[in-house]
Amino acid sequence: FLFTALLMHFGEIFVCLLLGYFPLVWQNIVSCLLYTFFLWLEKRQRVMTVALAEFEVVLFALVATLLTGLDSGFYFYFICLLVMSSYLSDAAPGCPIGVIQAPTVGILTVLVCLRRYLPLQIPGFPPPDEPALFIMFGMNMAICVFTTIVSVYLASQTLRRRNQELENANQNLEYIAGHDPLTGLQNRLNFYDQLEDLCRTADEDGSTFCVAMADIDNFKQFNDQYGHGHGDLVLISVADCIRTCVRETDGVCRWGGEEILLIMHGSADSCLPVVSRIRAEINSMGL
User: Fold this and answer.
1) Which of 43, 48, 134, 159 is the most exposed place for a label (fewest CB within 10 A)?
2) Of 180, 172, 201, nearest to 261 (Cα)?
3) pTM over 0.70
């Protein structure tokens, strides 16, 4: 927003120079200096920067309209600001967007509805000629259309990002609800859902599965002697070891305490080697 506004004002300097209307040249030079300052300030005070930039848009549009009249189309800047408000509120959370929107709508309404009754000309500054007004109107119309297109694009990107964040948060909540926070293994809730699915599948197609319960020998004695912190490290190590030994289709659940439950697809003959491999790997750890 800031960099685009800086480029637009910089381009308007050359347009106004070609048209020979120097009051707007100086006004755009001042705006370029302000946006250069805003780009520096944005790294330190984003909310204040956005509020000041919005105020600059309102002030620039009002002064330019008073210099050139409504036929130049500088009041389109008010529309641009209203269109950009949704993106600005996302770029700088906490910025009082409504404080700028309310006077913007009021000024735009007054300019359009009371144009015949208000002196829209600053004394001492003659308005541009008709060809210059036509060019200014086309320039400002193009800026308004460009701003609208960019705002719609940015709003869609913002909506997509928020949907992705919401989806990631939901996935994280689902993981937390179905897994033990210490070992990362499935918890009882997740196990019951998986067991129901396996029983339903077994009833439908006659498939088989095995369930094995295991616990760590003398775990309470270990906790009493070395403390629960070291006991947690043992649980994590055992859980990691079991995960590396089971097959991709198998499930591992922390049933409670040091008790671990395994769900294995297939017959007992095909599952016993998995259990034996787990015992051998844990024995080799020297716990």
Assistant:
1) 43
2) 180
3) no
